């Protein structure tokens, strides 16, 4: 598995997202390398995976085939981490977080 993260030059959201994902993956999923891809430097790669919104993630399998892609932002940043975890364990379905009120 390999995680490609597509960013766009001059996009502060992309830069923050990339930094956060690299740190998080390094702490929790070292077995899945993160490869930053700047779309201006790699437009063919972005087209290959249909990336049109940024930031974007593409999870590749061992044969370098896309397992899943996600472009744009989730409402909750935890959903990015959930997406990676689901892809890493081989589930390619859309993640829908159940929102529950927790009473204390």
What is the element layout, followed by pairings?
Blueprint: E1 2-7, H1 12-28, E2 34-38, H2 43-48, E3 56-60, E4 66-71, H3 78-88
Parallel strand pairs: 1-2
Antiparallel strand pairs: 1-3, 3-4
Mean pLDDT: 78
Remind me, CATH topology?
Glutaredoxin
Question: Given the helix and strand composition, which structural class is it?
Answer: alpha+beta
What letter string, H or E per element, gives the SSE order? Answer: EHEHEEH
Query: Under the CATH scheme, which class?
Result: Alpha Beta
Describe this structure in words.
Residues 91-104 have low confidence and may be disordered. This protein has helices spanning 12-28, 43-48, 78-88; strands at 2-7, 34-38, 56-60, 66-71. The chain contains three helices and four strands; from the N terminus they run βαβαββα. A four-stranded mixed beta sheet has the order 2-1-3-4, covered by helices on one side. A hairpin with a 5-residue loop joins strand 3 and strand 4. The protein has a single domain, classed as Glutaredoxin (3-Layer(aba) Sandwich), CATH 3.40.30.10. 33% of the residues lie in helices and 21% in strands. The chain is an alpha+beta fold and 104 residues long.
């Amino acid at each position: 598995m390999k995680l490609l993260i597509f960013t766009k030059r001059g996009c502060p959201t992309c830069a923050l997202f990339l930094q956060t994902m690299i740190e998080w993956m390094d702490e929790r999923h070292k077995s899945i390398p993160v490869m930053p891809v700047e779309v201006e430097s790699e437009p063919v790669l972005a087209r290959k995976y249909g990336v049109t919104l940024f930031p974007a993630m593409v999870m590749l399998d061992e044969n370098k085939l896309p397992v899943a892609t996600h472009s744009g932002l989730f409402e909750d940043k935890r959903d990015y981490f959930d997406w990676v975890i689901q892809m890493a364990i081989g589930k390619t379905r859309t993640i829908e977080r159940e929102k529950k009120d927790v009473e204390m």
